[in-house]
């Protein structure tokens, strides 16, 4: 039987993303502030290689200690500002992520209370536990380490390309010569990592379901003397989860070193081509050093985006299952009604319960001992 965790959906679903954005809407002000901080942090990060160029060309080259000291002081200030901006952005996104995670879990728990009893008869409780814990955590990772980081990496890439084009267009063309290799590597590993991520979540859901059923029914297991058989079954389930994680480790252990090697290839080409220009007085040594630093920073966001793509895939799969659970029809006789109570912090409002009025009648009910 194919479980819902094993079904491969789209890596990005705008319909699911739009529903997820509904939970971010109460915090759009904080998200906007975090976006501004990310842009500022990216701009500050671009100053480092330029300051290195200034120190080499106008300080070291002319033996100007005063100018060299000023550049070094400014570099320390840039590092301090970057550290402060990174701290602020991390704090804001973590607070938003935790708030969204709380709202989403409250919504799930409210809906679980409204589902008919038959749903719990045919759905393992461990799988529902996975929805409200692990799947929600995956969405939290997307909010805290995905949305802001993806936006920051894209903005950093644009800024680095602009800075590199202003330094030297020929060296920029040399850097872009290795981009086809990056595209090939990304396409090769994308599908494999996606399948492995789905496999990990499927096996985790199975293990949670198995543990929940066995722990809640341990008295029955002991009464039927099934300890050894259930232990061997758990060994297989646990080993499958371990093997799936090791497969993911293997794929990531290949992907990121390969991307680093491509970046190193670009740096070596720049040293070869740019070094000749320095010897022919086409560019200064400071320009070459700055360009090498920009190149290294150029491939860092690309590597980060490859990792964030995995986070996006995991979040889309988790969102598909969470919203699938939320779309499960509720019991029309549920005592949960549409009344809500306001909360001062502007979070989503959740229904309260109302007691029914009526009576319970026992007609011709009897029992006897045999």
UniProtKB/TrEMBL annotation:
<feature type="transmembrane region" description="Helical">
    <location>
        <begin position="31"/>
        <end position="51"/>
    </location>
</feature>
<dbReference type="InterPro" id="IPR036640">
    <property type="entry name" value="ABC1_TM_sf"/>
</dbReference>
<dbReference type="Pfam" id="PF00664">
    <property type="entry name" value="ABC_membrane"/>
</dbReference>
<feature type="domain" description="ABC transmembrane type-1">
    <location>
        <begin position="32"/>
        <end position="314"/>
    </location>
</feature>
<feature type="transmembrane region" description="Helical">
    <location>
        <begin position="278"/>
        <end position="295"/>
    </location>
</feature>
<keyword id="KW-0472">Membrane</keyword>
<keyword id="KW-1133">Transmembrane helix</keyword>
<feature type="transmembrane region" description="Helical">
    <location>
        <begin position="171"/>
        <end position="189"/>
    </location>
</feature>
<dbReference type="InterPro" id="IPR011527">
    <property type="entry name" value="ABC1_TM_dom"/>
</dbReference>
<dbReference type="GO" id="GO:0015421">
    <property type="term" value="F:ABC-type oligopeptide transporter activity"/>
</dbReference>
<feature type="transmembrane region" description="Helical">
    <location>
        <begin position="71"/>
        <end position="88"/>
    </location>
</feature>
<keyword id="KW-0547">Nucleotide-binding</keyword>
<dbReference type="InterPro" id="IPR039421">
    <property type="entry name" value="Type_1_exporter"/>
</dbReference>
<dbReference type="GO" id="GO:0005524">
    <property type="term" value="F:ATP binding"/>
</dbReference>
<keyword id="KW-0067">ATP-binding</keyword>
<feature type="transmembrane region" description="Helical">
    <location>
        <begin position="142"/>
        <end position="165"/>
    </location>
</feature>
<protein>
    <submittedName>
        <fullName>ABC transporter ATP-binding protein</fullName>
    </submittedName>
</protein>
<feature type="transmembrane region" description="Helical">
    <location>
        <begin position="253"/>
        <end position="272"/>
    </location>
</feature>
<dbReference type="GO" id="GO:0005886">
    <property type="term" value="C:plasma membrane"/>
</dbReference>
<keyword id="KW-0812">Transmembrane</keyword>
């Amino acid at each position: 039987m194919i479980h819902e965790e094993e079904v491969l959906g789209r890596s990005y679903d705008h319909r699911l993303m739009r529903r997820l954005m509904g939970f971010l809407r109460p915090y759009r002000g904080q998200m906007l502030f975090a976006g501004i901080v990310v842009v500022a942090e990216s701009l500050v990060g671009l100053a480092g290689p330029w300051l290195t160029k200034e120190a080499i060309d106008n300080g070291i080259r002319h033996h100007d200690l005063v100018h060299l000291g000023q550049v070094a002081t400014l570099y320390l200030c840039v590092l301090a500002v970057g550290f402060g901006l990174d701290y602020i952005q991390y704090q804001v996104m973590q607070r938003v992520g935790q708030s969204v995670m709380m709202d989403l879990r409250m919504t799930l728990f409210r809906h679980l209370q409204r589902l008919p009893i038959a749903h719990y008869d045919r759905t393992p409780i461990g799988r529902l536990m996975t929805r409200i814990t692990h799947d929600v955590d995956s969405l939290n990772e997307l909010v805290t380490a995905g949305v802001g980081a993806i936006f920051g990496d894209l903005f950093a890439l644009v800024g680095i390309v602009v800075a590199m084009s202003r330094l030297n267009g020929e060296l920029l063309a040399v850097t872009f010569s290795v981009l086809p290799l990056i595209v090939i590597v990304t396409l090769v590993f994308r599908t494999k990592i996606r399948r492995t991520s789905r496999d990990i979540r499927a096996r985790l859901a199975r293990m949670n379901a198995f543990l929940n059923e066995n722990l809640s029914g341990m008295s029955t297991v002991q009464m039927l003397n099934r300890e050894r058989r259930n232990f061997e079954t758990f060994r297989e389930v646990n080993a499958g989860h371990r093997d799936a994680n090791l497969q993911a480790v293997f794929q990531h252990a290949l992907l990121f070193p390969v991307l680093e090697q491509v970046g190193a290839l670009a740096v070596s080409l720049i040293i070869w081509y740019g070094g000749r220009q320095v010897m022919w007085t086409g560019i200064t040594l400071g320009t070459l050093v700055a360009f090498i630093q920009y190149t290294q920073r150029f491939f860092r966001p690309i590597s980060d985006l490859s990792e964030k793509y995995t986070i996006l895939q995991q979040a889309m799969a988790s969102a598909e299952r969470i919203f699938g659970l939320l779309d499960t029809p509720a019991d029309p006789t549920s005592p949960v009604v549409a009344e809500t109570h306001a909360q001062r912090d502007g979070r989503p409002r959740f229904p309260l319960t109302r007691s029914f009025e009526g009576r319970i009648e026992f007609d011709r009910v009897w029992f006897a001992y045999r």
